[in-house]
């Protein structure tokens, strides 16, 4: 039988987005190539995309439901049927609800990968549990929620129109995608020789090397730098006076608050020369339109994340770059089912959610509970006991802050259920492990629910390996098994058709089109105002003020460095992996090498460390073992560590070496955390380095 090339989009290696062409021969996917005709990726894919088939056909994939035998984490399993697995899960959930109430059940989800993410939110709402935990408080949601509070939406850079300046802040799109914004979009803009580039990053990345201005910031001082930019722009009257007058409230309060944050004072805290701060602020403010591309690093800095993100949205606003072509825009949702309807938000148990948020003092407007506070609740049994945890597309033992506490929490649970592609350190502790299909093994809609104005078709190309099920089928069947048939579907094909119904297309038609976009429109506020209580950009936030938080941005001055921990730890995500996933894939492991601690030559000399030495990075919370990588592109007082490491080759009995090079052994899931978002610091942590 002659092979057939089928077009799809990459997924699960990240949020997805790059176009792929897959050669299918006799039901077997035999080759993967970039799709040069794809309008978004234009023939680009990263090493993860090229490894798609290695993942599908890997000999260590989970292929059958398995129930624990022996002690938790002992590595002994019994293969069972899907009926038995669903009965086990449904019975465990119902027994906990009957004995302790719905708040005893929790769900933990990783980064959004497809429809299953929102479907799990639907199941949690129907069950009546507020405990839907994600890593959102340290990934994406600080920017999204503070955008909503300030201007009513998440401002994303507009690369579809020419821009005079790009300010790249805490992001490296050539290595990692920002939820639907591919690195190729940035590259196309930079190919225009008249576009200026400012990069703010502690490390001189490949992109920073080509920047007009690189600001080598001290990790964790982004809040100070943002207010210093505003200080320059306001003092020198570089702001858009007409926009500020007509479309903002609270500007006078901002003018007063930024007096403390002059470039001269902020320079000594951020390590950036005063003149560079002034140059960058002026270049951004005077280059209209200018696009600000902000990244996940801003979500990771901990106890002032909310005010950092607020300051940056205000920076976009006062310079006149909000919803302007070539600036930062509000994407229009494509014609699909509303998220509120799909997630059954009206079923949500708001009283329990308020109880949880009030206990920790965080905003009740978060659509989830922060992952670190889930762990604290399991351990403390307050404000209520959590007895069962269902984990989907996540590896909390590696990806949650304070891994020591995560280990303790997972061991204390009465029931732990994990859906996964491979056995992970978290799955190895489970009572029940469910095998998950990869994106080419089922029909899916990519980027549904993300604020980038489009959704993508991910059609089924091959049959699932073994007895693997799509995540969304697992959630749908569990919902039916729990007695909620009126809220779920006979099969997931019906679910996809209902999502697409407002577009007038069925799934087959959608797959042929490939992408469904919202209407392109700019300056929407001129007709409708901003979606805030005042209808304007709220520099002084009425929402934060009403909820008891500081309504005008402020910054924290970093503490004096501790002699026992004289260096500052930051971290980076590897180009070859997605968070903690895919350490099984030999091609990606070979490209990346061992997990590394990057240090400056001067620091290496002081510690008698040479390239390739084994070193320990130590914080107040723990230590990890890494390979030294010496680089002059890093500040001498900073150590950059690789994030998300564990070792499948170590075997299940050691939980795959989870405690060797896991960066979250260096972090803490406890106080202090951001008072609005519950964000715990994952970077900018005092540390020292020791030769192994």
What does this structure look like?
The protein has 25 helices and 28 strands. Helix 4 (115-127) runs parallel beside helix 19, helix 5 (141-151) crosses helix 13 (305-318) and helix 8 (222-235) packs across helix 12. It has 692 residues and is α/β, with parallel strands linked by helices. The model has no long low-confidence stretch (mean pLDDT 95). The relative contact order is 0.16. The N and C termini lie far apart (57 Å). Helix 4 (115-127) links the parallel strand 6 and strand 7.
- The total count of strands amounts to 28
How would you classify the helix and strand content by structural class? alpha/beta
Q: How would you write the strand order of the largest sheet?
A: 5-4-18-17-16-6-7-15
Distance between the termini: 57 Å
The overall pLDDT average reads: 95
Helix content: 25-40%
Largest sheet: 8 strands, mixed
In percent, how much strand structure appears in the residues? 15-25%
Evaluate the radius of gyration. Answer: 24 Å
Shape summary: globular
Number of helices: 25
Q: Unreliable segments (pLDDT under 50, ≥5 consecutive)?
A: none
Question: What is the secondary structure topology, with strand pairs?
Answer:
Blueprint: E1 4-9, E2 19-25, E3 28-34, H1 47-50, H2 52-56, E4 66-69, E5 76-79, H3 82-100, E6 105-109, H4 115-127, E7 132-134, H5 141-151, E8 156-157, E9 165-169, H6 183-190, E10 196-200, H7 206-209, E11 213-215, H8 222-235, H9 241-247, E12 248-249, H10 251-257, H11 263-270, H12 274-286, E13 290-294, H13 305-318, E14 328-329, H14 339-342, H15 350-360, E15 369-370, H16 371-380, E16 388-392, H17 396-399, H18 403-412, E17 415-420, E18 432-435, E19 444-446, E20 454-458, H19 471-481, H20 492-500, H21 507-513, E21 515-517, H22 525-528, E22 537-538, H23 542-546, E23 567-572, H24 586-592, E24 596-599, H25 601-606, E25 614-618, E26 623-630, E27 638-642, E28 685-691
Parallel strand pairs: 6-7, 6-16, 7-15, 9-10, 9-13, 10-11, 12-22, 16-17, 17-18, 23-27, 24-26
Antiparallel strand pairs: 1-2, 2-3, 4-5, 4-18, 8-14, 19-20, 20-21, 23-28, 24-27, 25-26, 25-28
């Amino acid at each position: 039988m002659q092979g057939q090339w089928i077009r799809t989009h990459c997924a699960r290696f990240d949020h997805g987005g790059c176009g792929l062409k897959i050669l299918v021969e006799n039901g077997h996917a035999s080759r993967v190539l970039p799709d040069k005709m794809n309008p978004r990726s234009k023939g680009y894919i990263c090493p993860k995309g090229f490894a798609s088939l290695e993942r599908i056909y890997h000999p260590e994939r989970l292929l059958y439901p398995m129930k624990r035998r022996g002690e938790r984490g002992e590595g002994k399993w019994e293969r069972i049927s899907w009926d038995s697995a669903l009965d086990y899960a449904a019975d465990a959930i119902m027994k906990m609800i009957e004995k302790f109430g719905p708040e005893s059940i929790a769900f933990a989800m990783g980064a959004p990968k497809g429809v299953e993410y929102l479907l799990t939110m639907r199941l949690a709402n129907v069950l009546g549990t507020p405990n839907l935990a994600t890593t959102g408080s340290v990934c994406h949601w600080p920017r999204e929620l503070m955008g909503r509070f300030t201007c009513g939406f998440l401002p994303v850079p507009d690369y579809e129109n020419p821009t005079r300046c790009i300010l790249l802040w805490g992001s490296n799109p050539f290595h990692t995608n920002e939820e639907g914004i591919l690195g190729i979009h940035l590259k196309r803009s930079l190919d225009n020789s008249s576009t200026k580039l400012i990069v703010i990053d502690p490390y001189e990345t490949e992109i920073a090397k080509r920047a007009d201005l690189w600001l080598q910031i001290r990790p964790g001082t982004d809040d100070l730098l943002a207010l210093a930019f505003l200080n320059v722009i306001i003092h020198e009257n570089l702001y858009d006076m007409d926009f500020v007058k007509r479309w903002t409230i609270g500007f006078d309060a901002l003018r007063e608050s930024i007096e403390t944050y002059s470039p001269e004072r902020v320079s000594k805290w951020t390590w950036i020369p005063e003149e560079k701060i002034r140059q960058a602020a002026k270049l951004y403010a005077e280059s209209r339109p200018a696009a600000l591309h902000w990244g996940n690093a801003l979500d990771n800095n901990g106890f002032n994340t909310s005010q950092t993100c607020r300051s940056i949205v205000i920076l976009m606003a006062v310079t006149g770059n909000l919803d302007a072509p070539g600036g930062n825009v509000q994407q229009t949702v494509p014609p699909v089912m509303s998220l509120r309807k799909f997630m059954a938000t009206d079923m949500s148990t708001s009283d329990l959610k308020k109880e949880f948020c009030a206990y920790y003092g965080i905003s009740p407007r978060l659509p989830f509970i922060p992952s670190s506070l889930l762990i604290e609740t399991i351990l403390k049994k307050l404000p209520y006991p959590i007895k069962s945890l269902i984990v989907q597309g996540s590896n909390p033992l590696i990806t949650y802050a304070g891994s020591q506490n995560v280990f303790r929490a997972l061991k204390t649970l009465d029931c732990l259920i994990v859906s996964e592609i491979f056995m992970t350190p978290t799955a190895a502790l489970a009572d029940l492990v469910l095998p998950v299909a990869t994106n080419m093994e089922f029909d899916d809609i990519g980027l549904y629910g993300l604020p980038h104005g489009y959704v993508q078709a991910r059609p089924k190309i091959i049959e699932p390996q073994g007895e693997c099920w799509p995540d969304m089928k697992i959630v749908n069947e569990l919902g039916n098994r729990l007695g909620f048939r009126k809220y779920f579907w006979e099969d997931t094909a019906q679910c996809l058709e209902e999502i697409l119904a407002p577009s007038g297309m069925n799934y087959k038609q959608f797959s042929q089109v490939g992408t469904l976009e919202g209407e392109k429109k700019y300056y929407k506020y001129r007709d409708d105002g901003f979606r805030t209580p005042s209808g304007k950009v709220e520099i002084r936030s009425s929402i934060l003020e009403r909820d008891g938080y500081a309504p005008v941005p402020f910054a924290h001055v970093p503490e004096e460095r501790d002699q026992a921990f004289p260096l500052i730890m930051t971290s980076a995500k590897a180009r070859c992996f997605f968070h903690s996933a895919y350490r099984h894939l030999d091609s990606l492991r070979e490209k990346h090498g061992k997990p590394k601690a990057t240090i400056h030559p001067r620091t290496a000399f002081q510690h008698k460390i040479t390239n390739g030495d084994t070193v320990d990075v130590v914080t107040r919370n723990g230590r990890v073992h890494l390979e030294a990588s010496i680089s002059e592109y890093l500040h001498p007082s900073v150590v950059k560590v690789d994030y998300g490491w564990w070792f499948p080759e170590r075997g299940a009995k050691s939980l795959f070496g989870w405690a060797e090079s896991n960066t979250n052994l260096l972090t803490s899931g406890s106080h202090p955390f951001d008072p609005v978002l519950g964000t715990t610091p994952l970077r900018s942590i005092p540390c020292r380095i020791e030769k192994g």
